[in-house]
Amino acid sequence: MDSCLSTISSSSYKKYELDNKKIFLCQLQISSLCKMELSQKSKLDQEEDESGGSTDKSVEHHMGSVR
Predict the structure, then answer these.
(1) Where are stretches of biased composition, namely Basic and acidic residues (predicted)?
(2) What is the pTM of this model?
């Protein structure tokens, strides 16, 4: 009885390990995709900030000269 249980548990454990590896790989893929999207989004945000920042600076400079 014990040996039967141990074989069942070991085989289920191996399956569990495989499932964990699959899940881990999926998480890695998802996180790398998210990082790529985030980096692309941050690049877009930086471009917007640079274009928006230049107008903000000119406005601030203009306001400063008015004062």
Answers:
(1) 57-67
(2) 0.40
Q: Note the residue count of the chain.
A: 67
Token pair belonging to 64: 């400063």
The 10s digit of each residue's pLDDT in 9-54 is: 677 777 888 888 888 888 888 888 888 888 888 888 887 776 665 5
Q: Which amino acid is at 65?
A: S
User: Which residue bears the tokens 């400063």?
Assistant: 64
Q: How far is CA 17 from the centre of its chain?
A: 24
For 67, the 3-state DSSP assignment is coil
